Amino acid sequence: MQIANEVAEAKLGQTRLPCAQKLAGAAQAQLRSIPADAQRAEMRHVQENVVELNGQRAQLAPGAQIRDASNRVIVPAALPSGSHVKYRLDASGHVREVWILTPQEAGAR
Fold it and tell me: Are residues 62 and 91 in the same domain?
């Protein structure tokens, strides 16, 4: 009985790996869409929820999302200094969404 369970687990593991690889490939191929009204800037993290956009300090909105070039959400302190970004503000003027641009996106105006 134990051998049968081990064989079944081994077969299950073999089918999981290709499925996981397909999902990972699909995630990498995911295209992100940055809204047309997003503004361009050079951004750096100052402290806590404060960033600089082109040298001007700005407050991050509660729940603000910063997405890296791979479209993963990162914490403000992980923002590389001098990042080329596109961003949007909320109704209060706080930074609500940020996309760190890839070199290709940064080159396209």
Answer: yes
